[in-house]
Every structure is written in C-alpha cells, then in structure tokens.
C-alpha cells in the first residue's frame, strides 16, 4: 500500500443518480447530451448513457408540464429507440419506464388522446409488457386530457 487514493471514476449509475437529482430539466438534458457526445466520440472519461439515463431526463421533462417539454420528451424517446436499433446495445433497450414517463410528459404537454394511443402502439410494437404504473399513467392521462377537451358543465354559469 503506497498511500495513494485509488483511481475512482463516476459510472453511468453515478450520472443517473445526478440526473434524478436535477431540479431543472434543462440541466438534466445538458448532462445527457454530454454523456451522448462522449459516447459518440469514444470518450471513456464520461460514462455512456443507458435507458435509465433517458428515462430520468424524460421524467424531468414531464415535471415541467409544458408543450415544449413534451416535444423534447417525445424526441428523446425516439432517439433512444434509434440508438438501440442502430447499436443493439441492451443497455439502451427502451423499457416500460421510458414510456410511462413519456405518457406523463404528453399529459401535461397539452396533447390529445391520439398521442397517448400512439405511445401504447409503440409499447405493443416493441413487445413491452405494460405494468400497473404504465396502465395507471395512461388511464390518468386520458381522463385528464378528456376533461380538458370537454367544456365544463358549469361553464354556462360564468
């Protein structure tokens, strides 16, 4: 033992923990972009993203509750799908958590139920098994969007 500290480097799990702690979705997006750039450039000093990285950022975007955030979340899910199909890297294989977070983003992004239907179709096409969280998110989003689309029965009292 020479008394030196071991060479400790952050892992993908370390970065994913950081992404989950980001209170700002833009900060989470920047961190994910940094991870992706390192991955495409072969830079081993920054861990490569995995499916958890993408799900964490999509979840952060859902928390913004804006149409712009919903667009970004949808683009990230599509990017993850492309990356997985291009590389066949199992660490990038989309899972049901990604789509549960995407449903939340679409719900608050002012979308309509046809967008939710498209997510359900993607889940089926990818052969993913919907879990209770996904089914609850879809049901909740449908109810929310239908309530927003329907004029309130009390609006005539205004």
Give a verbal description of the structure.
This protein is an all-alpha fold and 158 residues long. 67% of the residues lie in helices and 0% in strands. The protein is elongated. It starts with 11 loop residues before the first helix and ends in a 9-residue tail after the last helix.
Give the SSE map.
Blueprint: H1 12-21, H2 25-41, H3 51-64, H4 67-87, H5 96-108, H6 113-125, H7 132-149
Notable traits:
disordered C terminus, elongated, mainly alpha, 158 residues, single chain, 0% strand
Which H/E pattern describes the elements? HHHHHHH
Helix content: 55-70%
Strand content bin: under 5%
Number of extended strands: 0
Q: What class would the helix/strand composition place it in?
A: mainly alpha
Number of helices: 7
End-to-end span in angstroms? 79 Å
* pLDDT averaged over residues: 89
Low-confidence stretches: 153-158
Q: Determine Rg (CA atoms, Å).
A: 19 Å
Large-scale geometry: elongated
Largest sheet: none
């Amino acid at each position: 033992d020479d008394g030196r500290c071991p060479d400790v480097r952050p892992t993908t799990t370390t970065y994913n923990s950081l992404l989950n702690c980001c209170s700002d979705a833009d900060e989470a997006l920047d961190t994910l972009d940094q991870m992706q750039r390192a991955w495409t450039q072969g830079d081993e000093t920054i861990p490569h993203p995995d499916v958890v990285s993408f799900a964490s950022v999509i979840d952060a975007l859902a928390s913004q509750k804006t149409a712009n955030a919903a667009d970004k979340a949808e683009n990230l899910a599509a990017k993850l799908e492309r990356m997985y199909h291009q590389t066949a890297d199992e660490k990038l294989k989309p899972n049901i958590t990604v789509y549960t977070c995407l449903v939340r983003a679409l719900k608050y992004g002012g979308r309509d139920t046809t967008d939710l239907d498209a997510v359900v179709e993607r889940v089926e096409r990818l052969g993913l098994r919907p879990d209770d969280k996904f089914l609850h998110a879809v049901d909740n989003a449908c109810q929310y969007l239908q309530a927003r689309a329907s004029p309130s029965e009390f609006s005539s009292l205004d």
